[in-house]
């Protein structure tokens, strides 16, 4: 089946640092969604992208829908401790009706 | 709270028992989805409904699993003869078709099969 390759798998952040993660696929995607999940909770929607080239911000978060429609990235500026969690990219590709494909997540932790 | 709700939040059962989970979507959303998530993985699609019609099922949805949405509002997911491999977080999401199908998730039901 379709897969989304999300990287990095994990990263450590220090308060105030900028963070960047991305998601790639071998297939064209119609929609890209970025979610954050805290332990024991469901994913919370951060940003939704619907058109190639679209750049959307939500506070300190910025995400872009790649021009090739095969990738997306999420940036977090000036990170704060509550940014810790697992970030997932997800998307619909051409063949799916309702099946949202998820990456494996990027785990953000605080630098010791 | 007008978000997606799921009950129960946690369920512990013995192998071989049947379990049923409930999902109440956001009220104006006509699409409802079920996912399963295991540790260290992203959610995996199980099935989805548009109103009361079940439109798509994943091959992950074995014949021990059945989902219903009888009146196009809440949905139930039943697992019969549970196995230890069924232990996972079961997530429900809903969306309004025609608005990019942006899915909003509930808090999930954590199933542990002993």
Describe this structure as you would to a colleague.
The complex is a heterodimer of chains A (112) and B (114). Helix content of chain A is 0%, strand content 53%. Chain A contains no helices and eleven strands. Chain A has strands at 5-7, 10-13, 19-24, 29-37, 44-49, 55-58, 61-65, 71-76, 85-93, 101-102, 106-110. Chain A is globular. The mean pLDDT of chain A is 92. With 114 residues, chain B is mainly β. Chain B is 0% helix and 49% strand. Chain B contains no helices and eleven strands. In chain B, strands 2, 4, 5, 6, 9, 10 and 11 form a seven-stranded mixed sheet that branches. A four-stranded antiparallel sheet of chain B has the order 1-3-8-7, with no helix packed on it. In chain B, a hairpin with a 6-residue loop joins β7 and β8 (75-79). The A-B interface holds A 4, 31, 33, 35, 40-45, 48, 50, 88, 90, 92, 97-105 and B 4, 6, 31, 33, 35, 40-45, 48, 50, 55-56, 58, 91, 93, 100-108, 110.
Features:
heterodimer; A: 112 residues; mainly beta; six-stranded mixed beta sheet; five-stranded antiparallel beta sheet; 11 strands; 53% strand; globular; B: 114 residues; seven-stranded mixed beta sheet; four-stranded antiparallel beta sheet; 0% helix
Brief write-up:
The complex is a heterodimer of chains A (112) and B (114). With 112 residues, chain A is mainly β. Chain A has strands at 5-7, 10-13, 19-24, 29-37, 44-49, 55-58, 61-65, 71-76, 85-93, 101-102, 106-110.
**How many beta-strand elements of chain B?**
11
Give the H and E element order of chain B: EEEEEEEEEEE
Q: How many β-strands of chain A, per DSSP?
A: 11
Q: Identify the most extensive interface between protein chains.
A: A-B, 24 and 28 residues
Q: What level of helicity do the residues of chain B show?
A: under 10%
Arithmetic mean of pLDDT of chain A: 92
Low-confidence stretches of chain A: none
Structural class label of chain A: mainly beta
Residue fraction in strands of chain A: over 45%
Distance between the termini of chain B: 33 Å
Describe the largest sheet of chain B. 7 strands, mixed
Average pLDDT over all residues of chain B: 93
- Radius of gyration of chain B in whole Å, from Cα? 13 Å
């Amino acid at each position: 089946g379709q897969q989304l390759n999300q990287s990095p798998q994990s990263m450590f952040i220090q308060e105030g640092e900028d963070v960047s993660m991305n998601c790639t696929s071998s297939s064209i995607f119609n929609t890209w969604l970025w979610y954050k999940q805290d332990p024991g909770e469901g994913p919370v929607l951060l940003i939704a992208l619907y058109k190639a080239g679209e750049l959307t911000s939500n506070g300190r978060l910025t995400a872009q829908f790649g021009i090739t429609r095969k990738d997306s990235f999420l940036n977090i500026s000036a990170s704060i401790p509550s940014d810790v969690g697992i970030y997932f990219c997800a998307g619909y590709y051409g063949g799916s009706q309702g099946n949202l494909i998820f990456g494996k997540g990027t785990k953000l932790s605080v630098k010791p | 709270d007008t978000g997606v709700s799921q009950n129960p939040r946690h369920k512990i059962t013995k192998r071989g028992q049947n379990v049923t989970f409930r999902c109440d979507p956001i009220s104006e959303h006509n699409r409802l989805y079920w996912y399963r998530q295991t540790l260290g993985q992203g959610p995996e699609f199980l099935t989805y409904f548009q109103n009361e019609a079940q439109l798509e099922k994943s091959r992950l949805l074995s014949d021990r699993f059945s989902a219903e949405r009888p009146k196009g509002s809440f949905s139930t997911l039943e697992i019969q003869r549970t196995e230890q491999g069924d232990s996972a977080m079961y997530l429900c999401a809903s969306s309004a078709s025609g608005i990019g199908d942006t899915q909003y998730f509930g808090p999930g039901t954590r199933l542990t099969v002993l």
